[in-house]
Design a protein that fits this description.
Length: 269
C-alpha cells in the first residue's frame, strides 16, 4: 500500500512538472509572438510624445528620418528584455529613451540592433559590481549579453547636452565596439579602414591625455582604447563643432565609422 502511495505522489509530481514546463514554454512563446508583432508595428503616439519631449537628437531629424528612427526604435525596444534592479516596474520612459540612445549611435548603420545584447538592466543609481568590486554608473558584459545602466546617471546625461558626460552614449558605444567583433548576424559592420585610422589616432592621443597637460577630452579617455572610443562618442554627439575643430581627423573618422555627421545635423536645423 505504501508503495502505491509513493508511486502516486511521484506521478503527481511528474505531471505537475510537465504542466509547469508546458506553461512556461507557452508564456515564453506568447511573449515572443507579441514582441514579433510589436517590432513590426508603428511606434505608439505615447512613445512618440516621449521621444519628442526628451530626445534632442530625434527633434533635429527631418520628418522622414524621424519616421525611420521610430521604426528602428520600435524594433530595438521589442527585441530586448528590460530588467529593473530596485524599481518596481520598467516605465515607458525607460524603454523608449534607453532604446533611443542605442538608435542614435547606430542610426547611420543599416540593420544594427546590438543583437548580442538581449537584456538591459536598470538600477536607480550607481551600483556595486561583484565582478569588479567597485561602484559603476553603467557597464557592458558581452559574454552575458547584458547592458547595465544607472537610470539617474542616464537621465542626468541627457539633461545636460553640452557637458560631454552621457552614460547612455558611453555604454552604447561600448556595446557597438563589442558587437562589431562578435560573430553573429551583425558581425563586422564597422568600416575597417575607419577602425584602423581610429586605432592610429588612439595611439597618438591617449599618451597626450595621460600627460595631463590639458586635452580636449576629459582624463578618463586616457584609460584605454575602449574608454577613449566611448568618451569620444560622448563629445561627438554633445560638442560636435568644437570636436571637429579640436581633433578634425578623429571627428572625420567617427563620421565615417558611424555614417553620420552631428555638425551637419545641428547646423541643418
Amino acid at each position: 500500500m505504501l508503495w502505491y502511495v509513493v508511486v502516486g505522489l511521484l506521478l503527481i509530481g511528474l505531471v505537475a512538472a510537465v504542466v509547469k514546463l508546458f506553461y512556461d514554454v507557452f508564456v515564453i512563446a506568447r511573449q515572443e509572438l507579441e514582441n514579433f508583432f510589436h517590432r513590426r508595428s508603428p511606434l505608439s503616439q505615447q512613445h512618440r510624445e516621449i521621444l519628442q519631449e526628451y530626445s534632442a537628437y530625434y527633434r533635429l531629424l527631418a520628418p522622414e528620418d524621424q519616421k525611420r528612427f521610430e521604426r528602428r526604435l520600435q524594433r530595438f525596444m521589442y527585441s530586448k528584455k528590460f530588467v529593473t534592479r530596485g524599481f518596481k516596474v520598467v516605465t515607458d520612459e525607460m524603454r523608449v529613451l534607453i532604446s533611443a540612445s542605442a538608435i542614435q549611435l547606430t542610426f547611420g548603420l543599416p540593420k544594427i540592433y546590438l543583437a548580442n545584447f538581449d537584456r538591459i538592466l536598470i538600477y536607480p543609481d550607481s551600483y556595486y559590481s561583484n565582478i569588479t568590486q567597485r561602484y559603476h554608473l553603467g557597464e557592458v558584459n558581452p559574454r552575458a549579453g547584458i547592458i547595465v545602466l544607472s537610470w539617474k546617471s542616464f537621465v542626468d546625461g541627457y539633461a545636460n547636452l553640452k557637458d560631454s558626460l552621457n552614460v547612455g552614449i558611453h555604454e552604447m558605444a561600448h556595446a557597438i565596439h563589442f558587437e562589431n567583433r562578435i560573430k553573429n548576424k551583425e558581425y563586422d559592420f564597422l568600416d575597417n579602414g575607419a577602425l584602423q585610422k581610429l586605432a592610429e589616432i588612439t595611439r597618438r592621443e591617449v599618451p597626450i591625455i595621460r600627460e595631463g597637460n590639458g586635452h580636449f577630452f576629459r582624463d578618463y579617455a586616457g584609460t584605454n582604447a575602449y574608454e577613449f572610443f566611448a568618451v569620444s562618442l560622448e563629445y561627438f554627439f554633445e560638442k560636435p563643432l568644437q570636436f571637429s575643430e579640436a581633433i578634425p581627423d578623429l571627428y572625420d573618422t567617427l563620421k565615417k565609422l558611424l555614417n553620420q555627421d552631428p555638425v551637419a545635423l545641428y547646423q541643418g536645423r
